[in-house]
Amino acid sequence: MNITLFPNPRRPNIGLRPKSEAQRPLLPQHARLCPVLEAGSSLGALVYPSLSKNEQFQIGYEGEGVYHFAYSVNATGSKWEQLFTITYQLAMGGIGMRREEVKLMIPETQGFKETAKTIARMLFAPDDLGTPTGAVTLRGAYNFQTPPGWDTVYSSVLNQTERPIAPLLVIRVQTDWYVHDSEFRYILMPGETISASHSLPVGQVFFVPREEITFRDGTEQEIAQRQKTSQVFFNEKAAHKLTTPYGLEYSPHYQRKSREQQKAGTSATNESDAEIATGKKL
User: Fold this and answer.
1) If you compute the radius of gyration of the chain from its CA atoms, what whole number of angstroms results?
2) Which portions of the chain are predicted below pLDDT 50?
């Protein structure tokens, strides 16, 4: 399946391209020997912010409708320096902006406060602050257009377990026809902060077909066949155990079978395409 990429129109061609990543750095070593866990982690693609290597930002919720945004750069490669902060005070009840105060950490130049507000809007969505309470919406560096009949699901980074973990509102968008910018709305508690940098993903997307799903009960014959297949698999898994240098036992049987299935599927697809190209299959 081909997915079309479009750069963030507010800040085009700045930030890493989306990519699939199977491993999570802070998971224990033995988790990397679990192929189904890696398959879950690599679902879809990670989405990164529109930041260059020498940029980073933080946004935090201070409670009572107050949010604090800080933007920093590392121009020399040796030290991060904060350029400006913006404090957002929502109106009573959390609807609309009451105050947007920019504080510069560098000598003020004409128009720079407005530039600071523009930079902030490139990286997150101030208009979404407080919807619901504590919400901050981070923007991705790339947007997606899916083939006809396919949707995009926007979620937090899967299998990222380090604490604290801010909850995120998961959405599903019909990106085959609707022009949707990649946005990830996290919900912060008072005192919590989210950081973003060039190589730190702000969320994850995966692509699903838009079709009805129906459920039916398996027949007795299907249940018996499933049990038989399961027993054969676990017998073969036990027969192919390996031991790591640290004494941890694991079996690569699932991974091997998965690769065999993928290879068989690719071969079948190639053969079908070749038949269509030569007119043997209509």
Assistant:
1) 24
2) 274-282
